[in-house]
Write a structure and sequence with these properties.
Umud Fragment, subunit A; elongated; 2 domains; 3 helices; four-stranded antiparallel sheet; 17 strands
Length: about 250
Amino acid sequence: MDFEILLVVLTLLTGLVWGWDRWLRHRENIDRDRDPWYIDLPRSLFPIILIVLLVRSFVAEPFRIPSGSMLPTLQAGDFILVNKVSYGVRLPVLRSRLFGDGEPERGEVAVFRYPVDPSQDYIKRVIGLPGDEIRYQDRTFYVNGERLEQEGEDRYAGPGADPDQPSVLRTERVAGREYSILHHPASQSANFTYTVPEGKYFTVGDNRDRSADSRMWGPVSDDYLAGRAFLIWMSWDSEEGGIAWDRIGQRIE
């Protein structure tokens, strides 16, 4: 079961017990010290579960990075926080917008439901807004005819580096934002031109040649947006088998 659905169900069930105890049993002056565990436990947990639901749904939500598709910005094992109000406040589970008109900006790292399987959460960088013309040619993106500038040809030697197929580290700039991306010269790359439909966004991974993104499964609908990734709050280095202290607290650009 989806964790968000489970959290909502637990909030409703414990809330019913809490409300029944507070408003009905209180009037009868029942001695609560003798309550069985199945009344005492949900009554005690309800405020905690409610706070977790409200914070997770309307303030910030934690996510874990499972793969290297966003290298070098995010590594497998990073635990990040996502701003849930940046793209409008939405109802939990239903994801319908309550209020707010925030929209992703070019260059932002966004979390969203995977268009092919909405039960999964994906994280990518937004480079195309509704109505934009996206052109990909010679491993370079052009947005409305303007090239996303890239600099650098440094060999990448970080997590996930393959000595047999060395990757190249570059700096890309879009809409005033600057971030690092990876290219794998040995990988094949197809050129294309695409116009982003209204109400949708074109997203790509920073690990450009090893990322399943909008180039493969199309744009992301506004209804599927979860929020903007902004902070690494924990990171586990699987190769070293311990916490990557140097990554904790890093802002996600």
